[in-house]
Amino acid sequence: MIQGPEPEATRRIAGATESSRANRRWWDRNADDYQIEHGDFLGDARFVWGPEGLDEAEAALLGPAEDLKDRAVLEIGAGAAQCSRWLAAQGARPVALDLSGRQLRHARRIDLEAPAPTGPVPLVQADAGALPFADASFDLACSAYGALPFIADTARVQREVRRVLRPGGRWVFSVTHPVRWAFPDEPGPEGLTAVASYFDRTPYVEQDDRGIAVYVEHHRTLGDRVREITAAGLTLVDLVEPEWPAWNRQDWGGWSPLRGRLLPGTAIFVCEAR
Ligand SMILES: C[S@@+](CC[C@H](N)C(=O)[O-])C[C@H]1O[C@@H](n2cnc3c(N)ncnc32)[C@H](O)[C@@H]1O
User: Fold this and answer.
1) How far does the centroid of ligand 1 lie from the alpha carbon of residue 24, in Å?
2) Whole-structure pTM value
């Protein structure tokens, strides 16, 4: 296969449409590699919140597992729907939403290779910024690094999640810890020295030789996230910063045991619909 030149990494403005288009294509192109590289760590039916390996079975951020039975749960940016499969095994009724058709193909592949007694997870291909569901149609919503790091207008996602949740429903999502934006995204010692402003919200963009974005990530400070959550009609009930556990010796991109001992890598926001 003929490969083009490596994309250029830069910081520049990237709006909602450009970010969504770039990321859908990027995840379609990279879904196979992502599942090959991380599939064992994620498990087919585990609910892992991030590279530290915090597992919902222990953390119970969505509430006690026994209370999940019969709950309608929306998983946003579900990838191969591993978290949804764990939720289904607890008796919940998950729907797994993702922008990337290729990621959802992996969800279907896992359902076919290892059929669960609860049947295949219902899948929806859509952008998290425009959820194709009626108001108040879910009891719970969750996202493990899905969608939010990649979306320009995350305030809109918070409003959309609030809209589809019933009052009192929980919304739990994990993202890269905002402080990481001040550091190079490297797992080694070069990732331990701050080189950029934590306050610089300019998106990280990889672009091709015509200047067209092929990958985009968006930064929000902790305060930005809290303001977006509360403005959407949600209450922040906890902010979890998982510590790197001794058993986890695996690097995941810029997340590593070395950096995990010193810096938070993941922020998990636990919210409730007012
Ligand atoms: C880091 S992966 C996480 C996937 C899965 N939650 C996991 O833990 O493996 C991010 C996922 O977000 C999806 N995504 C990116 N932008 C999105 C958007 N605008 N709407 C919905 N999903 C999106 C990607 O396709 C990808 O599957």
Assistant:
1) 9
2) 0.97
Ligand 1: centre distance to CA 233 (Å): 24
Distance 246 CA to ligand 1 centre (A): 27
Mean pLDDT by 10 residues, the chain (274 residues): 77 97 98 98 98 98 98 98 98 98 98 93 98 98 98 98 98 98 98 98 97 98 98 98 98 98 98 98
Which secondary-structure segment (H or E) carries 19? helix 16-42
- Please tell me the distance from the alpha carbon of residue 7 to that of residue 16, in angstroms, as a whole number: 20
Question: Alpha-carbon dihedral of residues 171, 177, 178, 183, nearest 10 degrees?
Answer: -160
Ligand 1 within 6 A of 146 CB?
Answer: yes
Domains identified in the chain and CATH numbers: 8-273 (3.40.50.150)
What lies within 8 Å, CB to CB, of 202 at 6+ separation is 11, 12, 13, 219
CB 35 near ligand 1, within 6 Å: no
Q: Which of 98, 151, 175 to mutate to test the pocket of ligand 1 (most atoms within 8 A of CB)?
A: 98
